[in-house]
Amino acid sequence: MTKLMGKAVLTTRKIDVATYDIDFAGVVSNIVYIRWMEDMRMAMTRAPHNLPLVSLMGEDEGVAPAITKTEIRYRRPIMLGDDVQCNAWISSLTNRRITGEYEFYTNGKLAAHGKQEGCFINIKTKKFARTPYSWIQIFEDTLVTD
Predict the structure, then answer these.
(1) Which uninterrupted H or E stretch holds 71?
(2) Distance between CA atoms of 57 and 41, rounded to whole angstroms?
(3) Number of domains the chain contains
(4) At a CB cut-off of 8 Å and minimum separation 6, what does 30 contact?
């Protein structure tokens, strides 16, 4: 498989900032962005895209995605009471690697851009596994061309 690139499995969600998300300076703590990224990854596994995470981890395949790198570029603070929206997508997929990207907007302006790289592992052996064909198909089927 060659490297697939673009915006696939595009998912958008409104995020509510909670009081426990803010730090002593009154802004959303940097660790919260990582939790929000996890929430968005899980949102990609639900309708309408239905990335088959649970079935992958089951007896049939025994494969799970694993995050190997997380980057976040902060552009403006998000505060309690701000309207926050996150757009997330898979931007790259190869035989053994996957990259997801995240854009966090506050009041219509880009507040942060995140990127996570990962791979797939065999749950039993803990060794690298090939990207499941079902994920390649969903990537190709949902690819957005600009």
Answers:
(1) strand 63-74
(2) 15
(3) 1
(4) 72, 74
Pairing of β 128-129 and β 109-122: antiparallel
In 3D, which of 4, 40, 38 has the Cα closest to residue 141? 4
Residue, of 17 and 63, whose pLDDT is higher: 17
pTM here is: 0.90
Could you report the per-residue pLDDT of 44-55, keeping only the tens digit for each?
Answer: 887 677 777 666
CATH of the domain at 48: 3.10.129.10
Q: Residue 13 is which amino acid?
A: R
At residue 52, the pLDDT reads 72
Cβ-in-10-Å burial (0-12, 13-18, 19+) of 136 comes to: middle
DSSP annotation of 76? S
Computed over its alpha carbons, how large is the radius of gyration of the chain? 16
Cβ 99 vs Cβ 38: under 8 Å: no
Share of the chain above pLDDT 90, in %: 62
Domain that holds residue 117: 4-142
Residue 58 has pLDDT above 70, yes or no: no
The amino acid present at 18, given as its one-letter code, is A
